[in-house]
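Long-time lurker, first post. I've been practising inverse folding by hand and with some scripts of my own, and I keep getting stuck on stretches where the structure tokens seem ambiguous. Below is the full token string for one chain I'm working on. Before anyone asks, I'm not after the true native sequence, just a reasonable design that respects the backbone. If someone could post their per-position residues I'd love to compare against what I wrote down in my notebook.
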């Protein structure tokens, strides 16, 4: 009887300890995953960003705004940090014209950018497609019927996922494109928002959240 009593309790103790360790392991894994995510825009100022050019970048009512200045040239706002593999979620609202874009794995010298742009543009101008500036030009454009996902003058959600040479984009939960390109896979650089030349552009941005996917 004594032998049975200790065997039973030992089994219960080992079982309970195993559950506790599994629980702790799950908690630790969740914490590690969440620590890879960060907010790129704090809603107050341009801390963590670099302004390239003479166009206007400012904060208003918690939104990040890009607006054409008197020079009506290209302008870029890039992150200080570089990001390789990531998933970026953001919202944008085109208040005037709306020709812009989200660059990734990109570098900027003056107002000349090297890298790849996920297009943000008025209806019919391939929002969600991938363009290589000062290089091969358009790499891929969304199918024409997918343009209906864009809501001009309203808040739109965009998601960009870049892992190695593969990039996929979404606008308002509609998958716009996916591409595999070796040159993109070799790229290194920052995230950068663009304001196009020509003047008359004003776009609001908010809720820029990036999750690094490095293993």
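-- Answer (accepted) --
I ran through it position by position. Result:
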């Amino acid at each position: 009887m004594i032998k049975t009593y200790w065997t039973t309790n030992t089994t219960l103790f080992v079982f309970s300890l195993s559950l506790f360790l599994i629980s702790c392991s799950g908690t630790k894994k969740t914490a590690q995953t969440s620590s890879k995510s960060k907010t790129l825009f704090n809603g107050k100022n341009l801390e963590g960003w670099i302004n390239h050019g003479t166009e206007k970048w400012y904060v208003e009512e918690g939104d990040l705004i890009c607006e054409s200045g008197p020079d009506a040239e290209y302008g870029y706002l890039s992150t200080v940090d570089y990001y390789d593999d990531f998933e970026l979620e953001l919202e944008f609202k085109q208040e005037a014209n709306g020709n812009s874009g989200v660059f990734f794995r990109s570098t900027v010298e003056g107002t000349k950018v090297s890298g790849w742009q996920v297009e943000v543009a008025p209806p019919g101008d391939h929002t969600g497609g991938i363009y290589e500036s000062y290089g091969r030009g358009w790499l891929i454009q969304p199918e024409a019927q997918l343009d209906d996902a864009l809501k001009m003058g309203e808040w739109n959600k965009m998601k960009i996922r870049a892992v190695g040479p593969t990039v996929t984009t979404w606008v308002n939960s509609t998958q716009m494109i996916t591409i595999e390109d070796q040159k993109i896979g070799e790229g290194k650089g920052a995230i950068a928002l663009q304001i196009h030349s020509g003047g008359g552009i004003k776009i609001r941005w908010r809720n820029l959240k990036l999750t690094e996917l490095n293993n």
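A couple of notes from the structure itself: The two ends are 53 Å apart (CA to CA). The helical segments are 2-34, 182-185. Happy to go over any region you disagree with.
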